[in-house]
Amino acid sequence: TDAEVSIRKKTFTEVQTERLEQAERTVLIKCPPKLNEKKLLQYLSSHGTINSHFFFENRGTHALIEFSEKDSIASLQGAVGIPSAAEHHVVPFKSRLFTFTLKNPVNQAAEETPVHLSPQSHIPVKELIQKLCHADDISSQMYILLNEYQLTEENTKLRFLACSLVRDFASAYFPDSTVKPFGSSVNTFGKLGCDVDMFLDFHDTQKHATKMKKGPFEMEYQMKRLPSERLATQKILSVIGDCLDNFGPGCVSVQKILNARCPLVKFSHQPTGFQCDLSVSNSIAIKSSELLYIYGCLDSRVRALVFSVRCWARVHGLTNSVPGTWITNFSLTMMIMFFLQKRSPPIIPTLDQLKELADEKEKHVIGGYDCSFVSDLSKIKPTKNTETLDVLLGDFFEYFGNFDFRRNSINLRKVNE
């Protein structure tokens, strides 16, 4: 709804920074099937104040615990035991993933309390259809679909935690680096169950390079030099991939796809239940995530229309989770943005209009492409368009049903065909 949108007026970068910082103060605990929630939280509180927590089901019950201070994690790690190496030899990497067990489960059985589990996947289609049947009109149905499929607050926290846990490995080699999610995990268009795209960011290292320009002398780090950025990316990902494979608790099915156009490491992160793709510094991808974030925050109809059209395309087999010759969700989303820019009056601004509102610090040129646009949502005037979602959905199909794809293309910068 628009009330939700007005609350969420933080810039994309502010939200990212806040969530990454939250994730640094978070641990994930595998719990026994029968659990006294109060006692667990009481024990954890002895290491520091708990900001928030939730339980979820993923091959057993897990608890995500966010402390208010990072020091609480060090305190907890100092009090936790190493698994006994009776059958297997353990790799002594102390992560922020723990297993909580009861010493006398029988004696403590009377104290069990059923914990509330936060769902991490959307409801089955049959249940969804029942909910849709009870709605008053098509617009209400589209908002129901959005609410059932969109990422929840808890699921988003888990995504940032997965990135933060990968960063724990990367920072052993590159202390200034961060691991950030991009794409559907952060652009407001992610669906429950979608993969986590993440990238290793060395941005701070580049900022560091400009520090020693003043003064009568210069001093710099000695660093390994390689003939190309691509080769450096491949070597970095190869090592991080090996670390995750050999030492990462819960990291399985690690695949290094280093000869792809964009080299990456694919892996399954069992503790959070996510399929993850890790790449290296991807400035264009993060800017396109920010652009979609802005469009998604401007008007509640934008996300509702995107979720409905994507759902329709998926059900009719037009899109596929396996890469191939079919249209992608990203392309469909671009078509919807273009369509919304062409309404009278427009529902969202063009990229050129967003660029005109940008100030000096929002100017970005990446690989020769001007990627400048405003990031402060309050500078963008709300639309005067009041069309309902059912009208927009019908007109979207009408518009692209008659679109001459052979002769025309779409342009979000100027709204030209």
Automatic annotation (TrEMBL):
GO MF annotation, one: poly(A) RNA polymerase activity
Any one GO BP annotation for this protein: RNA 3'-end processing
Pfam families: MTPAP-like_central (PF22600), RL (PF17797)
InterPro entries linked to this entry: MTPAP-like_central, NT_sf, RL
Domain Poly(A) RNA polymerase mitochondrial-like central palm per the UniProt entry, residue ranges: 138-296
UniProt xrefs under Gene3D superfamilies: 1.10.1410.10, Beta Polymerase, domain 2
Gene Ontology cellular component terms for the protein in this record: mitochondrion
Residue ranges occupied by any RL domain in the UniProt entry: 11-78
Protein name: PAPD1 protein
Source organism (scientific name): Balaeniceps rex
